[in-house]
Write a structure and sequence with these properties.
There is one protein chain. By secondary structure, the chain is mainly alpha-helical. The strands form two sheets. It has a two-stranded antiparallel ribbon with strand order 1-2. Strands 3-4 form a two-stranded antiparallel sheet.
């Protein structure tokens, strides 16, 4: 009858079946409580040593007719073999008393103990052929972090070495090429600019280079086709030049700057004043040479236009200086004009010739060009340097007032020794 079979009733079960069940329950109690029912004087069974393969447990057979010792508790290996669960003692059927065991007849065969599960010996050793266990995740993560720290340390060390090498070695700097600043003041003539260009180390003849240029045609501004040079168009400013550069480059830069400062609005103003743009430029060149302070520029331009309107000689001494410099070859004449020079036979002598001189007598800046385009609304016809020597001009509407102012000026010159 199979263990645990409850399909048969108490009446159908024989005494032999009940005796077998009782023995089975007694055996299970011994297994669950090793101290009960086991003779403590029982000598342990001596077993011969047996070579056991690490990967295969070997069962040990108990001696015949010997009580079965309890199975020792085994330590939990990595994976332990599941043990057979113990079943609780089977309850007796109702109204069924515990049967009394009577000695069995001699002919009855002894009952053999229930078969025991084979005893397995746990061997933690691994064979040489078994693969090593995989590394744990925690260990792998630690190694990865250590490798990352080492890599970061190597990068930092490399950066420190590079910075140290840069600090120890002087950094080669590329020096900017030298630049020559050529300063052309307002009111300078071609001859005077030629001296400046030569002193600044520019190569070539400035006076030759400033005669003609494909960048500018004076006839476009109303100048006669016989105009000899570019006087008046050479705009004054500070120009950055390379050392030893040719004067042609300076002339080109000046003409470009002139086009930026004398354009459509100045040409329109010349038309409104009933003069050509070239004639407006001539007026601006005289204003630049005559005015000593900014406030006198528009007033001097008004005197020039008023005299032209009345057909009076302009009497501008700056134009006579220009004629003397051209005749003598002196770039800058600083002496007082003599009586003979005041009567020099030159179209630039505005005392003896009516109208404007044939060309500008200097190269004016933006302020004088603006004054020539927008003269003051005054009726002045005369002016003379003030007797106080501060540089301003004294203006008059009548000749008598002018003579008085002129006498005061001459007296001041005499008191100061010329």
């Amino acid at each position: 009858m199979a263990r645990g079979d409850r399909s048969r009733t108490g009446a159908e079960r024989t005494a032999e079946d009940r005796e077998r069940d009782r023995q089975e329950r007694a055996r299970r109690r011994q297994l669950s409580h090793p101290s009960n029912g086991v003779d403590k004087q029982f000598e342990p069974l001596e077993l011969e040593p047996v070579e056991v393969a690490p990967s295969e447990p070997v069962p040990l057979a108990p001696a015949p007719n010997a009580p079965v010792p309890p199975e020792p508790a085994r330590p939990e290996p990595f994976e332990s073999a599941p043990s057979e669960p113990l079943l609780p003692p089977e309850p007796l059927a109702p109204n069924e008393a515990e049967p009394q065991i009577e000695p069995s007849p001699a002919s009855a065969p002894p009952l053999s103990p229930a078969p025991q599960p084979p005893l397995r010996i746990w061997a933690p050793e691994r064979s040489a052929a078994a693969p090593p266990p995989p590394p744990r995740k925690g260990r792998r993560s630690l190694l990865a972090r250590l490798a990352a720290v080492l890599a970061l340390g190597a990068v930092v060390a490399a950066v420190v070495l590079v910075l140290h090498s840069r600090e120890s070695k002087p950094v080669a700097t590329i020096a900017a090429p030298p630049v020559v600043k050529v300063l052309i003041p307002e009111g300078k003539t071609r001859a005077q600019i030629a001296q400046i260009a030569s002193s600044d180390g520019l190569k070539g003849s400035y006076r030759v280079a400033s005669r003609h240029s494909p960048l500018l045609d004076p006839a476009h501004y109303g100048a006669p086709k016989s105009t000899p040079d570019l006087e008046g168009f050479l705009f004054p400013a500070t120009y950055d030049m390379n050392p030893g550069e040719g004067v042609n480059r300076l002339v080109e830069e000046q003409l470009i700057a002139f086009g930026e400062n004398f354009g459509v609005s100045e040409i329109a103003r010349a038309r409104a004043l009933h003069v050509t743009a070239y004639q407006l430029l001539i007026v601006a060149s005289m204003v630049e040479r005559e005015a000593q302070i900014p406030g006198d520029r528009a007033k001097i331009a008004a005197v020039i236009y008023n005299r032209l309107a009345q057909g009076m000689p302009l009497g501008i001494d700056a134009s006579i200086y220009y004629a003397v410099e051209a005749e003598t070859g002196i770039a800058t004449y600083t002496q007082e004009l003599t009586e003979a020079q005041l009567h020099i036979n030159s179209p630039y002598n505005t005392r003896t010739h009516l109208g404007l001189p044939p060309t500008p007598i200097s190269n004016p800046g933006a302020a004088s060009i603006h004054a020539a385009a927008y003269p003051a609304h005054v009726a002045y016809l005369y002016y003379v340097a003030g007797a106080d020597g501060c540089g301003e001009q004294v203006f008059a509407n009548t000749l008598s007032q002018f003579e008085t102012d002129n006498a005061a000026y001459k007296a001041a010159v005499a008191r100061n020794g010329g």
